[in-house]
């Protein structure tokens, strides 16, 4: 299988007709102040918030979809179930109904993280939020997790980078893809600069980067794999995050995704998505 075709199929699966102002894609959030917590029953009330460590206000951290989101992650702030089990699902990428093979003697096929989920109806909810795609700056309760933003005319000092810390699979069996078909974070210790942009929907400077999570794995259902990341600020304004491990499990391909393949390109190009940061 030609690498260009493989990348195109993944892009169709994840990035078709994305609007950066509105899309139904879930992102991993990057913010500061990892030990500050609102009272989720009244998140805008400062008197009910707690902070177990006042010395980490400028430390970066990652988190999943918070409890007030329509697709809240059960084990927030991690991407996991409430009991710690794996939450993120991998499905096989298909070409005309057949799996895409790695092209060596390993027998591995291509899997990508794509599934629908909502807090009310769980996995497979067609009106839920599509997981998982890239990274977004935190814009949380009371602004306590937000990266600095003054106004649209003042470019912030911070300069956030992702670093791939490791994976549970062979190094080249995990990679990420940008919407422009570029593979990134393809080896441990690789870094990627997250562009800062004025986000009109947030009325603030922040980050909004689309990127898919992809693995070469055997066809077996129930495989659990991990990828670990950190974030650092090249400007020195913020201190580096702790490592953030994301666990995934292979599941059968949902019937709704069997259309992915060369014959489905016209249909997929007509789909519209919205983006829930």
Automatic annotation (TrEMBL):
Q: Where is the signal peptide?
A: 1-21
Instruction: Cite the entry's keywords alphabetically.
Output: Signal
Q: Which residues form a coiled coil?
A: none
Which segments cross the bilayer?
Answer: none
Cite the InterPro entries for this sequence: Ice-binding_C
Q: Please indicate which superkingdom the organism of origin belongs to.
A: Bacteria
Q: Which residues form the Ice-binding protein C-terminal domain?
A: 250-265
- Protein name per Swiss-Prot or TrEMBL: Ice-binding protein C-terminal domain-containing protein
Organism of provenance: Sedimentisphaera cyanobacteriorum
Lineage, opening ranks = Bacteria, Pseudomonadati, Planctomycetota, Phycisphaerae, Sedimentisphaerales
